[in-house]
Write a sequence for this structure.
């Protein structure tokens, strides 16, 4: 929240301090930036998170392992499934639960669909902000087809409470693969339309190329991961570096760009959508038979052996990690989420906004694909 | 994954992929005898040092390729009167995740800041200052991050009673299951 020692008076006669948000063009009511501007140039920026702080990590210390399962997806509304997968992987590691191969493949389908849905939602916000409102509507409309798949699979559209320790909550329903192929075909056919309308559009390039450049060395030194890091040329991706679920058996490349500017960051997201569609298809085609979960202990009397673990996966925004400590009781002793938006949304954002034009602040922030709920937790 | 820099891969790290966790364990034990090192499973390394040795350990790990600081975490071991700081590091070329751990006194927790080694440690330390009450010497920005005008004890400490806080602040009654 607002830093109490921050100067309330303007630092120099020509400078003005203004609160950009939490309700502003780049974000709807959940993340603010305190800008010091001179004219319409940003002199300094301070991120102002905390509007979505719900105290998840403390709450989880008070809840049993099964009670925490429906809680964790709420960490990030845009990309909820990675949080479920992290929690499940951490509990499996501590409790020594095996996950059947089919569950790994189903998890991969869900995680990649979640990535597509998150990237489409990002595209909606980003394109709208840059004045490409048609693309915004298309992206949001196409995201709904992905949500239809989630509804068929899990019963929920936004929050799925589906990936749980030992596997997934239920097996694929009849006809799911066919439904999924139809959605994948549709999304695939829309990608050239997105490109014509936005990614190959000169106005988009003029507005974003060379803007808010983050170099590779700086990105690595500041803990940046995911699409923002890959936009600087570094091919780091947890799906490759420490494969989980079924990623080790799937064929995919890690798309990168070199320039590290707003344009490169957006194009990497666009390339990832295509790659994710391919991954969902591969996972569905290679789906093994067998059970989709292992039997869990009685959840009302479930005590997890003492120990600690750190698990990580590649969420839509980068390295999402989960540190869990168990003291042998029926509740976690300590949990801590490592969210990819955390280093990016505070220090990197503050740095990239220095010297930016006031009219670029919103879309520089969106180009970094920051999710405020992940920062606040 | 090599580019024109020769011995540097595309993530910028010097290649050292042949080193496994057991080699690393031996290397750390040789150079820091006061450090306890375990390898709980492949790809994971836990190194525990007394408080004074932490910066040396982090420096050693960083020069050994652990250049990515994932997270700084803290665990409140209230019964032992200590707070445990856990620095999570990742080595891209070794594909190993290391946890460097140390403990500080719970009554007056102080630690040296690591922002000279890892710039973005600033925010993690800022949060731990707010949530656990740890002072990080050398961190210039130990101001509130997530909480709004918080007056109570640091809320992630174990003695902070969440249920009582909810009752007193929001008037929420405990549910009784009988």
């Amino acid at each position: 929240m607002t830093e109490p020692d921050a100067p309330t008076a303007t630092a120099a006669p020509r400078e003005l301090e203004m609160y950009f948000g939490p309700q502003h063009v780049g974000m709807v009511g959940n993340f603010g930036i305190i800008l010091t501007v001179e004219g319409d140039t940003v002199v300094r920026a301070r991120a102002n998170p905390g509007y979505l702080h719900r105290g998840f990590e403390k709450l989880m210390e008070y809840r049993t392992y099964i009670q925490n399962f429906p809680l964790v997806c709420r960490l990030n509304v845009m990309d909820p499934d990675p949080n479920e997968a992290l929690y499940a992987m951490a509990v499996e590691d501590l409790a020594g639960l095996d996950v059947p191969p089919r569950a790994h493949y189903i998890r991969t389908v869900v995680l990649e669909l979640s990535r597509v849905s998150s990237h489409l939602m990002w595209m909606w916000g980003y394109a709208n902000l840059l004045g490409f409102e048609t693309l915004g509507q298309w992206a949001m409309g196409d995201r709904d087809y992905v949500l239809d798949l989630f509804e068929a699979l899990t019963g929920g559209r936004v929050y799925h409470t589906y990936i749980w320790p030992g596997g997934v909550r239920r097996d694929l329903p009849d006809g799911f693969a066919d439904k999924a192929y139809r959605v994948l075909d549709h999304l695939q056919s829309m990608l050239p339309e997105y490109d014509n309308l936005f990614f190959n559009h000169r106005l988009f390039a003029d507005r974003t190329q060379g803007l808010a450049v983050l170099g590779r060395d700086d990105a690595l030194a500041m803990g940046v991961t995911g699409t923002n890091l890959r936009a600087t040329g570094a091919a780091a991706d947890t799906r490759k570096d420490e494969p989980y679920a079924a990623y080790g058996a799937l064929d995919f490349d890690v798309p990168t760009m070199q320039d590290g500017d707003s344009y490169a960051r957006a194009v990497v997201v666009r390339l990832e959508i295509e790659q994710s569609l391919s991954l969902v298809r591969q996972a569905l085609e290679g789906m093994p038979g067998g059970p989709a979960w292992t039997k869990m202990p009685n959840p009302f009397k479930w005590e997890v052996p003492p120990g600690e673990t750190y698990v990580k996966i590649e969420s839509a925004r980068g390295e999402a990690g989960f540190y869990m400590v168990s003291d042998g009781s029926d509740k976690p002793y300590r949990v801590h989420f490592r969210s990819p938006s955390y280093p990016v949304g505070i220090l990197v954002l503050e740095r990239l906004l220095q010297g930016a034009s006031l009219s670029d602040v919103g879309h520089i922030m969106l180009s970094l694909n920051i999710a405020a709920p992940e920062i606040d937790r | 994954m090599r580019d024109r820099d020769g011995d540097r891969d595309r993530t910028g790290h010097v290649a050292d992929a042949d080193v496994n966790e057991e080699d690393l364990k031996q290397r750390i034990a040789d150079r820091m005898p006061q450090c306890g090192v375990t390898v709980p499973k492949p790809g994971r390394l836990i190194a525990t040092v007394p408080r004074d040795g932490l910066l040396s350990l982090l420096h050693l790990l960083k020069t050994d390729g652990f250049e990515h600081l994932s997270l700084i975490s803290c665990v409140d071991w209230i019964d032992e009167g200590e707070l445990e700081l856990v620095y999570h590091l990742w080595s891209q070329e070794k594909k190993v995740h290391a946890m460097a751990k140390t403990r500080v006194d719970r009554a007056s927790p102080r630690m040296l800041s690591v922002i000279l080694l890892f710039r973005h440690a600033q925010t993690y330390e800022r949060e731990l200052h707010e949530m656990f009450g740890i002072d990080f010497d050398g961190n210039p920005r130990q101001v509130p991050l997530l909480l709004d005008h918080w007056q109570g004890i640091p809320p992630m400490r174990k003695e902070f009673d969440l249920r009582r806080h909810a009752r007193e602040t929001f008037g929420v009654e405990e549910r009784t299951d009988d």
Q: What stands out?
A: Chain A touches chain B through 47 residues (CB under 8 Å).
